[in-house]
Amino acid sequence: MLTYDMLAVIFLINIVNADIYTVENATRLFNFFKTKYNKMYKNKLEEKNSLRNFIDNLNKVAALNEKVKGNDTLYVINRYADMDPEDFDQHYAISLKTYENEGKVDLTNIGGQDILRNTMEKIRNKVEKDEDYSESIELYDLGNANNLYKQYMEKFGKKNATKKYDRTVHFYRFVKTLVDINRNHFKGNYTIALDDNADIVKEPYEYFY
Asked: I need a labelling partner for 140 at 20 to 30 A (CA). Which of 3, 174, 198, 205 fits?
């Protein structure tokens, strides 16, 4: 069984060499990724899609590292590497970054033990720090906004406005509230919750986001 350090070495060398990732050569890294970040998927289809996203993001990072080759700069994937940023933005209105710039790293002698040890330590520290971040973030899917609004109206005993324009404004303000909650929850701020003011427009055009 491969240890963390051995996998980290393989991971680092593969990224630096800018290989083209496929299911065949990325599955082991994906399994390592799932273990380190405690990733759980609802079903086989979701896991398959997550693997596809993971491979896409690995190749993006490899292409970035190829562009900065010779500048001693290293890009690495992060805990969101199994996600599609565009799809995530559409569902939750959150800009997601699936990789990070680790800054200046001396890659002139990739076989050197000190270089590998220092780089692995940076990756390990980031992983251990990220493990404190809850995977069960409560986010509202904007694709389900109509049903969420209906549930909200029923929960707080609200009645729809008589004019179509007013109904639309209240709905869009509700959606903006969902966006605000999502963005705060994603940052770890749970002080904002869905209350009976979620559809109330306090300022002109406050329903835009």
From this structure: 205
What is the pTM (predicted TM-score) of this model? 0.74
Q: Per-residue pLDDT for 170 more than 50?
A: yes
User: 89: pLDDT confidence band, cut at 50, 70 and 90?
Assistant: very high
| Mean local confidence (pLDDT), 13-24 | 66
Check pLDDT > 50 for residue 4. Answer: no
Q: Which of 24-28, 109-113, 124-128 has the lowest mean pLDDT?
A: 109-113
- What angle, 0 to 180 degrees and rounded to 10, lies between the N-to-C axes of helices 4-16 and 44-67? 50
Q: What does DSSP assign to residue 142?
A: G
The per-residue DSSP string of 29-43 comes to HHHHHHHHTT---SS
Distance CA 154, CA 209 (A): 25
Lookup result for tokens 């290989």? 19
Between helices 4-16 and 113-130, what is the axis angle to 10°? 110
Asked if residues 142 and 175 have their Cβ atoms less than 8 Å apart, the reply is: yes
Rounded Cα distance between 180 and 58, Å, is 30
Task: In whole angstroms, give the CA distance from residue 20 to residue 86.
Answer: 22
Hey, what domains does the chain have and what are their CATH numbers? 4-130 (no CATH), 138-209 (1.10.287)
